[in-house]
Amino acid sequence: MRRFNIFQHSHSALRSLLLDTSLLIQFTDFSDPGQVQATFDQVTELVLACQRQAEEEARYIIPAISVLHGRVEECFAHGDEQKPSASMKMLNRMNLYEQYAGTPRAARLAASIANTSFQKFAEQVIAGMQLQEEILNPLLWSYYSDDALRQLHMQIEGRQTITEWLSLCTWMMKDMSDEEIVSWLLNVRPTLPLQVYEMLLERISGKMPMMRWDNVQTGMTEEAMVA
């Protein structure tokens, strides 16, 4: 039986955002200030999303496990100390690039950001998600029922701002099939205020290709008719 994965939504969002940002960096013309700003804005969004996920892990997931399995804090202490380094180095290089824009040093910094800083940061993010899937999930499944994990997940999401939650959902959708999106939207609809649900649909429809959004709407209509 497939267990509830408390990291599924956040990892789907991070994977999509990470891939999209990686492609964006590779195709950025660093001589164009507009392109650079858009790229740096998305890199910052990715860093903030990773920081929020790490904070949620430290605030909710680790304590939930350590109550019953105290050694988990020791296992993740070293990794948490390393997490800020790659992101901070990348952000520092971005700040330096903006200071030296138009100079030969800026060109060297651009290459460093694209080829070294972001790659190290991405490796760190992927390794962190892997640890959560391979270590934290099995521990959570050992001590908690799926209903308890869903309650914990709702508690975590409840601490997010609407803006943060909508952003996470938007990126998450890019990592899902049309059928998965239909199922998720139908499941989440009864749990949301109408205004929030409408904001969610508006946000998703604005980010998703029109043909794909039409498929999702058709799927939701068909599922509603069957129900």
What can you tell me about this protein's structure?
This is Hemerythrin-like domain-containing protein. By secondary structure, this protein is an all-alpha fold. The chain has two domains: 8-160, Four Helix Bundle (Hemerythrin (Met), subunit A) (Up-down Bundle); 176-227. It is 83% helix and 0% strand. It contains nine helices and no strands. The protein has helices at residues 8-26, 33-66, 72-99, 104-143, 146-158, 162-173, 178-188, 194-207, 210-226. Helix 3 runs antiparallel to helix 4. The radius of gyration is 20 Å and the shape is flat. The two termini are 24 Å apart.
Please outline the helices and strands:
Blueprint lengths: L7 H19 L6 H34 L5 H28 L4 H40 L2 H13 L3 H12 L4 H11 L5 H14 L2 H17 L1
Helix pairs in contact: 1-2, 1-4, 1-6, 2-3, 2-4, 3-4, 6-8, 7-9
Low-confidence stretches: none
Q: What is the overall shape? A: flat
* C-alpha end-to-end distance: 24 Å
Number of strands: 0
Report the CATH architecture of the largest domain: Up-down Bundle
Query: How many helices does DSSP assign?
Result: 9
Radius of gyration: 20 Å
Largest sheet: none
For the record, what CATH class of the largest domain applies? Answer: Mainly Alpha
What fold name goes in the CATH topology slot of the largest domain? Four Helix Bundle (Hemerythrin (Met), subunit A)
Run of helices and strands: HHHHHHHHH
How many structural units, i.e. domains? 2
Portion in helices: over 70%
**Hey, roughly how much beta strand do the residues contain?**
under 5%
Mean pLDDT: 91
Going by helix content, strand content and strand pairing, the class is: mainly alpha
Protein name: Hemerythrin-like domain-containing protein
